Amino acid sequence: MQVIDPKKILKLMAIQEVSARTLAEQIGYSSHSYVNRILKGDIKTVTPERAARIARFFGVGVDDLFVPRLSTDARQSSKRKAS
Known about the structure:
By secondary structure, this protein is mainly alpha-helical. It is built from six helices and two strands; from the N terminus they run E-H-H-H-H-H-E-H. The chain has helices at 6-15, 20-27, 32-40, 48-58, 62-65, 72-82; strands at 2-3, 66-67. It has a two-stranded antiparallel sheet with strand order 1-2. Helix 2 packs across helix 3. It starts with a strand and ends with a helix.
C-alpha cells in the first residue's frame, strides 16, 4: 500500500499525542526508525497488513491514509490494451 501523504499520519499523531515509538510498537515494528522513515517520505509503501494496523490504531479507514500500489506490469499492460 502506498502512503498518500505522510503529513496526514503526522497530523493524526499530533492530534492523538502519539510518538513514533508508540506507533511502531502498536503496529508491530521493532524499531521506531522505520516509522520515522515513513513519516519523512523516505519509505513510500507498506504491507497491506501494516497499513490496516496503522489505520485501525488511529480509528480511520485505510483509504484515508493509503492507496493500493499497482505493479508496473499492470500499468504497462493496461497501456497496451488502450492502444
